[in-house]
Amino acid sequence: MKVRSSVFASFILIFEVVGIALFLRGFFPVPVKSSFSSKSSLSDQPKEPLAGSAPNSSRLPQPLFKRVVIMLVDALREDFVLGPSGRMYMPYTRHLVEKGSSQSFVAKARPPTVTMPRIKALTTGSIPGFIDVVMNLNSPALLEDNLIWQAKTAGKRIVFYGDDTWVRLFPKHFMEYDGTTSFFVSDYTEVDNNVTRHLDSTLKRDDWDMLILHYLGLDHIGHISGPHSSLIQPKLLEMDDILKKIHSALEAEGSLPYLLVLCGDHGMSETGSHGGSSEPEVNTPLVLISPAFKRKVGMEKPAVVEQVDLTPTLALGLGLPISQNSVGRVIPGVLEETSLRDQLRFLHLNGHQLSCLLKDSVADYEKDPGFEQFRVAEKAHGNWMKLYLEGNTSEVLTNMGKKVLKQYLEALAAMSSALSKQLGKYDMYSMVAGMLLLILLLAMPEALSGAASVDLPVLSALLSLPFYLLCLLLASVHVLVCTSAESSCYFCSLSWGLVFAAVAFSSAMFCILVSIATRRLPLGGDGEWSLSELDVLLLAGTVGHTLSLAASSFVEEEHQTWYFLLNTLCLVVFQDVCRKYFREQRGPGGDEEPILPSKDCRSSARPAAGIYSERWLALATPPFTCCAAGLLRSLNQTGVQWAHLPMSDTGSTGCSEHKLVLSLLSAFCLVLIYLLVQRRCSWVSKVALALGLLGVYSYRAAVGNVLFPWQHAGRTTSKGTVEARFVYVFVLGILFTGTKDLLRSQIITADAKLKSRGLWEIYSGLVLLASLLFRAHNLPVLCCCLLIQTLMAQFIWKRLHYDAAQTTIMHYWFGQAFFYFQGNSNNIGTVDISVGFVGLESYVEAPAIFLTALSTYAGPLLWACHLVCYLSSERDSPVALGHGCYCLALLRSVPAAAYIVLVTVLRYHLFIWSVFSPKLLYESMHLLLTAAVCLFFNTMEQSHGSSKS
Amino acid sequence: MWDHEIKAMASTHAIIASSVFMATVLPAVLVPGFSVYGAHLLWLYSVSGAVTVVSVAVFWLLGITPPTKKHTLGYKLSRVVRSCLYFFLSCLFFHTVVVLYGAPLIESALETFSLSVLLTSLTTLRCLCVLGPNVQAWIRVFSRHGAMSVWDTCLQITVACTLVGAWLGAFPIPLDWDRPWQVWPVSCSLGAMIGYLTGLVAAPAWIHYHRKQLTYKCK
């Protein structure tokens, strides 16, 4: 079966998109959330169950504790307190654990063991996913229902000292706070003294109900020198002293019982880092100290609880509603000293909350054993209550109550584990499936061959033995994975027919690709490879960039990589140009003349002066590109390391002088854009383009970015909806004319000129749209983009006879660099969401997302479109377009596939959430976009082929 | 084929490499508190000075420089003046390129310029020694199949190695390791130096192993 290579490429890209979607589905598990957007409140609390009559009281038991002090020590490992060395490290705490009225546990944290998600888990009781971070892009504040919000709503006064992550998560929640930054890892004393200095005065006062302390020093020591360094002991002794101070101050007060919590957010690995899922990183101590507990008589082996169990325990202990999305269950040891009725009531509240969450997140919740158990226990609870209220105080009743209690605990455990099974876990099966799909499709052996069509041996592959073996293997793997107990994968929830179709398809694909590869293999060896410097650079740059994605710093500073590569590219092109023109002039070889017949016949017609000016322009183009890149780089400082440097140009500053400069600049840019784009359009589009660009300026004036010459000073700024819509009309008009030309060229006249005009019109429509969406100070970026495209196309690509692959790679690099010139970065925070509101009265999801994506990827998109236009209009060989498409697909999928493998390997990396996951989203979005562009290519090539024949 | 030349080349390179070594060791002995990272500029100047002096001396003694047509004093003087001018221009050129690559424009101009002086003394100076102040010859040597003698090939290899070394040296700068050698321009100059030394070793070796295949068309 013969398939055109571009069709094959787009086909492959589409499957890559499917693969990456599968991977994302496994990598970002869908969070368990209750469907109500509101937060739970006291009035929603369930009534106390009572058999027979209507449930009478919705009374909550008395709060167990009046005041709570939470002392959170970052990276406090379980064995620092509860292990054999704990006696040496934290003597006082150890004494309390062994002899005092305390409860101690080993709390298991969920990976990623990084501070921010851990704080979220501790306060919301849920296990946050990365997707949450993406969902509330704008606000770093925690919007979910959480313990701190509940406490504040209930009128508790909260004081916080420590890591300023809390301050960012809970703005305006604290009565008093002092945030310390964990910016300087090498500082481990000052950062803790800044917390402790407030302690004495705060402990003396009694105008607070909740005190939260977050100490960072231990974590810093761990990062510097590991868990066995000599710095650890003094630090832990310091923490022990602080705990002693707090404890004695609370003891002295002695009104209603207090609760002192000592916990860690995550542990510390043997090398001192954290983020992964090894035992020492996951196990943290949890020590609860309160006079409400029984005095201990000796050291017991601490029970193991989940970290999230602290949330419902604290909520119930303080008499607050449990936050909605909490998956924790109350720690029964804490409730031991209360009356049986209260204990049952507490468990009932917790169970009710969990069952509500279960209802919302699991489809067939009624079949869940935990849910059933809870229903049974609730009924038994009602019966017990009836007897209790009747005044029955016999031994039988107590035993019955104990039985209900046990039922409740079992139900809670079952429901909690059912819920957390879906949470915070990578769905490895989907991830591996997506990854395999991607890597499998990377086997594109024909990529650089430049052949017009690919021969797919479908029939022979379908009849071969490996195909059936592979089918069998994959199917058995699927059955094995899905029937094993503890996994919950997306694939297993699909219907069997669909899965087996997918299995058959992918094994067929695999067989086909392997047979293609083996067919190519002997051919690849004999060809003598001679690479020019440019080829070496292009190959090395692509490979090097792909490899650099493994380091988090290189991902953060990816723009530097591209700027660097772009500059090098310009220099190498400059060398090429120099060589061509100076060698040619001296003309000893004469070997270059006969290769360029097309150029010769054209240039010989021109006067000699024209050739000279052309040469100088060609010589000036690469340095000009370099300089433009240098200027553009300083326009938008992106990245992390140099984020503090001031931007040379920002649209936000409001002073009028600045505004004047900006208006002149943008007017100049718009004029230049018009001049650059209009050359190849029909006159209708020219007029539309001019009016559209005028509309862009008036939109900017209406929004208040630039000055309008005849504008009243006192005019208020509007949203510019009318102006923006005015521009949209012209964009649509130009796109329509372009499409019309394309269709006409394809169907009626088969005129290549008409077709290229149609393409350029579509391109200019995109330019107009981009100029509307770009921020005012970014217009020079667009302008430079067009200028460089024109110059390069005119003087470099055409004159130096670069082939389609080289041109494509250069376009791709320029597109990447312009992505960062625009001010983007690999951080979710730099996405400009305000673009979604251009020309819209209110937020409408679909156009907003479309516009945001378009403006974010404007750089790569414009370059890719230029590539289509250039290849189809300048080249006469019909293969060039398909070849270019193939190269673009390959260029995009190599880093994407490599990155997916890397992310899978690094999934327990410390920065997986902050650095790698956003980049993964960017990569997949870019892949999607490239797939769309390649489809466009494909239709173009098809029409090209039909017009040729 | 070119056994004599290869031997001469190897010994020349050995002398130059030892001069680099001495230029690193001597200040360490003489100047208190000297280190390659700490007093980086001093190291840069001492190395570039040493390389300049030694290469000029060695190449002059060897007499590889193309024979001049005229032997008048004035012509020789003009050649020397032009060489100095080219040296300076090349410093400026490297400075511009490095700034275009993203070096700070004003803040550490001295460091950037020192780096460009080092690069010039490692690359351009050699061109001046081997080819003379003749831009056409330079362009010829640095285009494909342009080498016309063993020395040209050697020049290509060392210059390419130096530039690639400096280029690779820029990569660790964005990493957040906070090491002393990540400070601008330490990693680049170290990269250039390592590349240069590699080139000095690689050029004779490569020519030695490919001496059968090497053919030069005489002009």
TrEMBL record, chain A:
Where the record annotates domain GPI ethanolamine phosphate transferase 2 C-terminal, the positions are: 719-924
> Primary place of residence?
endoplasmic reticulum
Keyword Glycoprotein on entry: yes
Q: Which UniProt keywords apply?
A: Endoplasmic reticulum, Glycoprotein, GPI-anchor biosynthesis, Membrane, Transferase, Transmembrane, Transmembrane helix
Q: Where is this region: Disordered?
A: 38-57
GO biological process, any: GPI anchor biosynthetic process
Q: Which domain of life is it from?
A: Eukaryota
A Gene Ontology molecular function term of the record: CP2 mannose-ethanolamine phosphotransferase activity
Topology in the membrane?
Multi-pass membrane protein
- Which pathway, per its entry? Glycolipid biosynthesis; glycosylphosphatidylinositol-anchor biosynthesis
Fetch the Pfam families from UniProt. Answer: Phosphodiest, PIGO_PIGG
Q: Where in the cell is it found?
A: Endoplasmic reticulum membrane
Coiled-coil regions listed: none
Q: Does the keyword Transmembrane apply?
A: yes
Q: Which residues cross the membrane?
A: 7-28, 426-444, 456-481, 493-516, 660-677, 689-710, 722-738, 848-873, 885-908, 920-940
Q: Name one GO cellular component term.
A: endoplasmic reticulum membrane
What family is reported? Belongs to the PIGG/PIGN/PIGO family. PIGG subfamily.
- Protein name as catalogued: Phosphatidylinositol glycan anchor biosynthesis class G
Q: Which organism is it from?
A: Salarias fasciatus (Jewelled blenny)
UniProtKB/TrEMBL annotation, chain B:
What membrane topology does the annotation report for this chain? Multi-pass membrane protein
Q: What are the annotated GO cellular component locations?
A: endoplasmic reticulum membrane
> Which UniProt keywords are present, listed alphabetically?
Endoplasmic reticulum, GPI-anchor biosynthesis, Membrane, Transmembrane, Transmembrane helix
Record pathway: Glycolipid biosynthesis; glycosylphosphatidylinositol-anchor biosynthesis
InterPro entries the record matches: GPI_biosynthesis_protein_Pig-F
What this protein is called in its record is: Phosphatidylinositol glycan anchor biosynthesis, class F
Presence of the UniProt keyword Endoplasmic reticulum in the record:
yes
TM annotation in the entry: 12-30, 42-63, 84-106, 112-132, 153-171, 183-207
Give the chief site where it resides. endoplasmic reticulum
Question: What is one GO biological process annotated to this record?
Answer: GPI anchor biosynthetic process
Is Iron-sulfur given among the entry's keywords?
no
Where in or outside the cell it occurs: the entry states:
Endoplasmic reticulum membrane
